[in-house]
């Protein structure tokens, strides 16, 4: 059913359904990535003293390698593939967020959309690279080789991995700030009180949840938990929202028998 709003806004039930499905796609992707994180990084960390390959690593790098070292190849492979194969769903979810911003105007809505979708386009590379990173440290550890080049391999791979990691975080942070400003200015489908529905707020909450969870299963799942929160909130908020005419507008109606044009307006 298509109706006309008070100021000529086209309200399309099919468009609302597409926005809902795109939000659900983000939820499905987040659940898949969460499962992948558990497979990749959810095992208890091994002691660095028992594995010489870990002696040169600490912080996030050391913790990640220590968690992947005891994992099987199949576990690491499925952990990586769950994220890579569902990555396109995140791109649909970014379109879902864009529909929540679009009525505020293209100059305000497009930049955060482009930044967020760029970050989510980079994310599958980061997630999938954990398989090769984990396999490399396992091979080095099993070989017992004293080769400097082989011993440096996990660190070299980490350097490339964290460059991509940093790029996606920059995209998410800038996109989140712009998105919050867009919502707070008003005019977006997202109400002003929903300014916090963005990665910059949801990802730290995901980190707190992972830290508070018992055991080690969620120790590497901070981003996936944050994204699950983000797209759950956005889907709930936009569930009954009606997009503006610019978001989804049908073709102009054909003239009636008297030659008068129908009430629907043509696309801008």
SSE map:
Layout: E1 2-4, E2 10-12, H1 13-41, H2 59-68, H3 73-101, H4 106-143, H5 148-185, H6 199-212, H7 222-238
Antiparallel strand pairs: 1-2
In round numbers, the mean pLDDT is: 85
Rg over C-alpha atoms, rounded to the nearest angstrom: 23 Å
Largest sheet: 2 strands, antiparallel
Task: Tally the helices.
Answer: 7
Provide the succession of SSEs.
EEHHHHHHH
Unreliable residue stretches: 1-11, 245-268
Number of strands: 2
In whole angstroms, the N-to-C terminal distance is: 21 Å
Strand content: under 5%
Helix content: 55-70%
Shape: elongated
Major β-sheet strand ordering: 1-2
Q: What structural category do the secondary elements indicate?
A: mainly alpha
Notable traits:
single chain; about 270 residues; mainly alpha; two-stranded antiparallel ribbon; 7 helices; disordered N terminus; disordered C terminus
What does this 3D model show about the protein?
- By secondary structure, the protein is an all-alpha fold.
- Helices cover 65% and strands 2% of the residues.
- It is built from 7 helices and 2 strands, in the order E-E-H-H-H-H-H-H-H.
- The protein has helices at 13-41, 59-68, 73-101, 106-143, 148-185, 199-212, 222-238; strands at 2-4, 10-12.
- The chain has a two-stranded antiparallel sheet.
- Strand 1 and strand 2 form a beta hairpin.
Short description:
This protein is 65% helix and 2% strand. By secondary structure, the chain is mainly alpha-helical. The longest helix has 38 residues, at 106-143.
